[in-house]
Request: fold
Amino acid sequence: MHEPSDQSLEAASPPRPSGKPQAQRGKQAQPTPPAREPSARQPSPRHRASIPSLRAQIYKSHIKPVWCPGCGHFGVLAALTKTLAHLELPPERVAVVSGIGCSSRLPAYLAVHGFHGLHGRALPLAAGLKSARPELTVIVAGGDGDGFSIGGNHFLHACRRNQDLTYIVMDNEVYGMTKGQASPTTQPDWCRSKLTPQGTGIRRFQPAAIALAAGASFIARGFAGAPAGLTRLLAAAIEHPGFAFVHVLSPCRTFRPEQQHWKQQVHPCELEPAQDLAQAAALMQRDDGMALGILFRQRIPVYAAGVAPITEQALRQIAAHSGALAEIEAELCR
Amino acid sequence: MSAPSPDAVIESVAELLAHALELEYASKAHYEQLADSMNVHHNTAVADLFCSFATLSADHAAAVAARAGDTDLPRIPPWGFKWLCPDAPEGGDCLDPALSYGMSTVQALEVALHNERRSRAYYAHCAASAALPEARRLAADMAAEAAEHIALLEQMLADERRRHRDTPDDLDPPHVPA
Amino acid sequence: MHPPALRPTASQLALAVTGAGGSGAVTAGLILLEAVAAAGLQGLLRRSAGPQIRGGESAALLRFGPDPVLCAGDRCDLLAALDWDNHARFADEIPLDKASLVLADPAAGALPDAVVASGAKVRHMEFRANARQRSGGRANMVAVGALGALAGLPLRALLDGAARTLGAKGDAVVSGAQACIGAGHALADPADLLRETCDIDPHPRVRWHINGNEAAGLGALRAGVRFVAAYPITPASEMLEWLAPRLERLGGTLLQAEDELASVNMLIGSAFGGVPALTATSGPGLSLMLEGIGLAVASETPIVVVDVMRGGPSTGIPTKSEQSDLNAALYGLHGDAPHLVLAALDIADCTHTVAWAVRLAWRLQTAAIVLSDQSLGQSRAVCEPVAPDLRRPAGDATALRGPLLASDAVYRRYAVTADGISPMSVPGETGRTYTADGLEHDPEGTPSSRAADHATQLDKRQRKLMTFDFGPDWAEILDGDHDPAQADAGLRLCLLSFGALRGAVVEAAERLRADGWDVRSIALRLLAPLQCEALRAAIGQALVLVVEQNHGAQLFHYLHAEQALPAAARSLARPGPLPLRPGEIVAAAAQLLAEDPHARA
Reply:
C-alpha cells in the first residue's frame, strides 16, 4: 500500500467565508472578534479552563483534513484534542508520530510536534524519539494496514518493549487511501475489492489478542462514534506508564458503508479491566471485537532507557576533551 | 474517573452553564470541521451553510458565557458530562449517515435541525430533572431558545426543499466492483 | 612486460599464526600486537575465521614495523602453524615464498603440499610438547614466544603483552602463558632471526590500540552521538557492543531494534528530538534501511548510517571484506534524494570520517552513509591517534535554530533559503511546532503535490549539498617526498581509490616512486557529493588507475558518469574475499605506464 500521487489535497486554509477565526499552528486560537457585545464574545479564562471543546482548540492546526465526510477519524481527532486539553499537556511537549494511510494524516491536523513518516514505521520512529527525549508525551497513530500488516513486526516488539508510548490504531478494516483493498482485519469473505474479488480467504488479525500475547501492558478498545468514551480511554492510555494500545473502531464511509451498523453492535466490555494474563486471555476468548473499554491493564516494568538531557556542561566537556569521553579515549591508548 | 451514571442529574446552575457552554463550543467546532471538510471536497454551498451554523453556535456560546459572567464553573472531564446521548447533543456525530462529500444544502439543514432538536430535548430533560429550581428555570429558558432555533431551521429547510427537490447524484463513486 | 620484482618492505614484517578450533591463534595474535605496542612499534592485526560460532579454525595475521602499517602487504615472512587441520582455507590469504619461514610442530603431521611447493624454509618446533611440560601450558603461547623472538620483539614486551591480554583470566593463566612464551622464545635459533631484536622504548609515544569498529564508535561519541539503534550483523556488531556501555557512561543509550527497518526509523525519531543518532550495519541491513534513509533526506532529519561492508550480494560472504556496497550507498534511494556518502580511509580514520559525517549530517540536515568494511572494522591496529576535535559537538540546539527569515511571520520548517538550510526546531520549543513529512511539502511542511513546491524543495535539498564548502577533507592526496608545488608538473599517474583500499594504494605508490615514477595517490573520503572540480584538478593530465575491491568496478563507473575521469582512465577492480595487495596494484600500474605512448625516456 503506497501513497497515490494525486492525494495531497491539504492546503493552508484560505480565509473562511464567514471570516471565522482558526487556530494558528503553534499559537493559541483567539475567539471571534466581538461584533455587538464585546465582552460577551470573549470567553473568560475561567470558562476556557472548564470547557473541553474550548480548550481543545489550541491543539488543532489550520490544515483541513482530507478525510471523507462521515469518516470515523474525525471522531478520533476531536477526542484526541479534548484529551490533550483535559490532561493540560503543553502542545510543544507532545509529539504525534504516524505512518502512511488515511488515519496517518492525523499529525498535520494537530498543533503539536508531528512526524508523518514511512508506511508501517511509525512505532520505531516514535521509539527513537521517546528514547532521545523521555520527557515528551509521544503518541503514535495509524491504521490497520499500517500497523498490523506492513508494520506488524514493529507492533509485536513495541508491545514487548513496553516503552511509555500510546498507540492509537484507527481500524476500518480496509486500505482507504489506496482505494479500498482488504487489510489484515478485513473479513476473509469480503469481496468488495477488485484486488481480491473472491475475498482474501485469510483469517482476520486479532489486534487485542495479539497485543496481549506480545506483552502489551494496556489494551483498550474505543469507537469513533462514541468520542466521549474514547477521550476517557485515551486519557487512561496516555497516563498509563508503559505501552498503551488503543484499538479504535473507526468506520470507513466510502469503502465499508456497512460499518454504519457498528453503532448498534458496539457494547461495553466487562466492567473492570482484566489485570492478570489468564483473566485477560479468557476475556479475549469471549471478545466479539465490539466490546468497548479497557480490556487489560497491568503495571509491569517500563522500558526506561533514554538519553539524559544534554547539558551545557556536557557540551563544554566534549569541546574541552575532558570528562567521561576523555576517560573512554584513554582506555584505547598504550 | 468514571463516566456519570445514566440517571445522573444536573445539580447546580454552574453545572448547567458548563454543559451549555460545552454543548455550544462542541457544536461550533463540529460545524467548523464540517465546513472545512466540505471546502476540501469543493462543496462550497454546503461549506458556507456550515460556516453560518458555526457562527450561530459561537453567538449562542457567547450568550451563555454572558449569562455565566464570573460564575465559577465546575471542571468536568470530557467524558464526565451528563448527556443523554454519547456526546454533546450538538457536538455532532461524525458518523451521521447524512454526511457525504456531495451532500445537499437540504441535507445540511436536516443535520442542523437534528442537532438542534437534540439540544432542545436535552434542555427540556434538564428543566424537568435538575436538582435546583433555579437550574430548572434556566434550562427551561434554554429549551425555549432552542425551540426558536428549531423553528428558524424548519423554515429554512422548507424554503430550501422548495428550491432543491432532487437529491444529488454521486458522480464520483468509490472504486469498488460493480 | 614483467611487473617490477616484489621487494619485501624491509622495515616491516608479516607474521601469521594459524590453527584449528580452540588452538588460540587469535589470542596469540592479540598478545603479539600488544608486544608490538610495548616495543614502541606500530602494527596491523587482521583475523580470518571459519563460519563456526566456536571452535572454528582461525588465523591471526600481523604486520608490524616502526612506521604506520598501511595494509596486509604482499607476503608472509613468518608462519607458525599450531596444526595443519584446515590450512587449505587460509593458504590463499597467507602467501608464502622462498624467503618465508614456517614454524611447524612435528606432532601436527605432514606439511600440506602448498607449503612444500612454496619453497619456504621450515623449522620444526615442538609447541605442544613444550606446553605440556608446564602447568596450564598452551601450545599457542609457545608459538608466541618463538615468533616474537624471530621477529625481534623483546621478551619483556611479549610477557607484558600476555599480562595485558590475559589479565582478566587471573594470575595463574598469565604466569602459565608467560612460562610458555619464555620457553618458545628460547626455542628460536638466533641464525633464523628476521630482524634485530629491538628494545622496549623507555619513552613511548601514546598510540591507539584500536579496531575500525571501535574507532568509528569513538568518532560518533566525539561528534555528539548519544543515541544508537541497531540490529546485530557481521561485521558491524562490535561497533555496537563497544558503544553500548560507553553511551551509558555519557548519558546516552543504545536500543537493540527488532530489525533494520526499525533501527533507521528510530534514528530519525531521535534526531527529530534533537539528539544525534547513528547506526552501524552491513550490506543486507543497508538494503533494508534505504527507504528510511530517503525519509531522512526528504524530511531533512540528520542521521548517520555506518555500513561495514562485507562480500555481497545477498548474504554473500559475511566475514570477508569487499567494497561492493558503493552503488547501493550512492544510488539505492528512490526519487531524487541527494545525501552524503563518505568512506573511512583506514582504521584510525574511521574516527575522523564518522565524526565528520555526524557534523556534516547535522550541518546540512540530511542523511550520511559512511562506508567502512570488514578489513577496517575487524582489524586491530597500533597506530597514531587522531587528535580530538575541540569544536562543540553536533545537535547543539542553538546551532540548529537558525534565524527566522525576516519575511516569515510564522515558523517555516522548510523555508527556502540561499544555502538551502532551513531553521530546525526540536520538540519543546514553543511556537515552533511542525509536522515533519516524507510527503513532498511546502515551506511550512504541509503536504503538497504542486509542481512548484516539488521543484523548489528538490532544488533546496540539492543546493544544501552542492554549495557547501567541504574543505580539504574530501580526499587524501599524497605525492610522497615530492615538493607539492612541483608535483603537478611531472605527474604521470594517479592511483585513485576510496575507503580502505587507500592503504594498499599508498604502499603501491611508494614502490612506484622508488622505481622513479611520479605517482600521486588520491583516496576519496567524500564520495557524494563528488568534489568533481577538485578531483579533476588533482588528476590534471596524468594517467589514472582506479583501484577498488569489487567485481563491477563501481567507483570507476561512478566517476565516469560524473565526468571526473579522462577517457583513458583504467580500472583495477577485484572482488573479495582476498585483500587487494600492493603488488597487484604495482603490476597493473606498471602495465598502464608501459602502454602509455608518452612513456618516460
About this structure: Residues 1-41 of chain A have pLDDT under 50 and may be disordered. The beta strands of chain A are 94-98, 113-116, 137-143, 166-171, 218-223, 244-249, 267-268, 291-297. Chain A has one domain: 59-297.
